[in-house]
Amino acid sequence: MLTITQDLVDRIVAHARKDHPDEACGVIAGPAGSDRPERFIPMLNAAMSPTFYEFDSGDLLKLYREMDDRDEEPVVIYHSHTATEAHPSRTDISYANEPGAHYVLVSTADTDDLGPFQFRSFRIVEGEVTEEEVKVVESY
Fold first, then answer.
1. Where are the alpha helices (DSSP H) in 38-101?
2. How far apart are CA 137 and CA 16, in angstroms?
3. CB-based contact 106:12 (threshold 8 Å)
4. Distance CA 72, CA 30 (A)
C-alpha cells in the first residue's frame, strides 16, 4: 500500500495538468528504508511527448547523487498518461528498474483543469505489475 499526503497528490496532479498534452514525470524521494514519500521532485520529460516519458540522463544522474548525499531513495516514481487510463504500458514496465518504488500514474485523458482524474499506484518487479491501494493522509 502507498501512503501519501494530500499535498503530494495535489502536486503530482498539478504537474500532470500543467504539462498536458505532454506526459509529466517526476520522483518523490524519502528517507532510505522508510517507504515514506516526502520530497517532491518534478522532472522534465526529455521526450516532450504526449505518449512517452523519459528522464533526462544528466538530470537523473544529478538526482541520484543528491538522494545518495541526503540518504534518500526514490519512494514514488510518477508520470502521467494523457490519452489512456492510468495503467503501466509495456514501455513503462520495461523501464521500471526500481523494485522498491511505487509507480504512480495519473491520467489526464478526458479531463479539464478541474475535472476528474485517475490516480493509481503499482509495484513493478521483474516485469510483474501489481496494483496497490493508495491511502491519502493529511500528514505523517
1. 57-69, 90-95
2. 20
3. yes
4. 5
CA 15 to CA 79: how far, in whole Å? 9
Domains of the chain: which residue ranges? 2-137
Following CA atoms 23, 135, 93, 58 in sequence, which dihedral angle do they give, to the nearest 10 degrees?
Answer: 50
CA 86 – CA 119 distance, rounded (Å): 7
pTM value surpassing 0.90: yes
CATH topology of domain 2-137: Cytidine Deaminase; domain 2 (3.40.140)
The whole-chain average pLDDT of the chain stands at 94
User: Residue 113 corresponds to which cell in the numbers above?
Assistant: 483543469
pLDDT tens string 20-38: 999 999 999 999 999 999 9
